[in-house]
Amino acid sequence: MARQRLHTLDDLLDVAEQIVTSGDPSGLTLRSLAAAAGASNGTIYHAFGSKDVLLARLWLRSSSRLRELMAEAMTAGTGSTGTAGVDAVVAVALAPVEFVRRFPASARLFFAQRRDQLFSGDLPPEVEAELAAVQGRFVEVLVTLARGVWERGDRVAVEAIAVCVVDLPGGIVRRCLLEDREADEATASRLEAAVRAIVALPLEPRPPRPAPSPSTSPSAPRSNP
Fold first, then answer.
1. How many structural domains comprise the chain?
2. CA-based, 20 to 30 A from 202: which of 2, 174, 178, 196?
3. What is the pLDDT of residues 47-72, one digit of tens each?
4. Do 161 and 88 share a structural domain?
5. Mean pLDDT to the nearest integer, 185-207
6. Mean pLDDT rounded to a whole number for the chain
7. pTM for the predicted model, two decimal places
């Protein structure tokens, strides 16, 4: 039977994702993707142009999927007055667990590989712009959550939220993936308890604003001789 040809971008990324997550990422090349997908070399080169662009596209899709789940969780995770902000943080912290369930290969790619190790920085400007936009949307989620809990969007508040929704769930999910198992309800319950304990702690004071540099500060009035 002739191999089915895949031509949509998502189909090609699905095949590439399986190649990367089933072994060494260095085993993925544009030619190996063409062979595995049943597509022509020209189709693959036209879609991606280079291996780094292909890997960047994979990372972009994975991070976008996770960010969409976080946005859904942030909207749905509300409770009674006074707890809505905390409930939203908990819901977003649990989003990576749902990410693994819905998109296991994307989650393995996202959590098992550091972005700077997956592809180089030599990318076309439009891909760089998409990467920056995704990063910006993640930061927006952190700031929104921080303001929902403490009515603060400064560095201290955002870093506390990052511990809750990035560091803790990322470490738990990464360990589950390495052990080839899903995060069970007990694990999710412990994650929720840890997040609620963190947001219950008082925050440090707001960091002081940097003093204006001499080049931007108003000139001092001169005294008469």
1. 2
2. 174
3. 999 999 999 999 999 999 999 999 99
4. yes
5. 93
6. 85
7. 0.82
Query: Domain check: are 76 and 156 in the same one?
Result: yes
Residues 104, 146, single domain; the answer is yes
Residue 102 forms part of a structural domain? yes
The range of the structural domain enclosing residue 36 comes to 1-49
Structure-token pair, residue 147? 């303001």
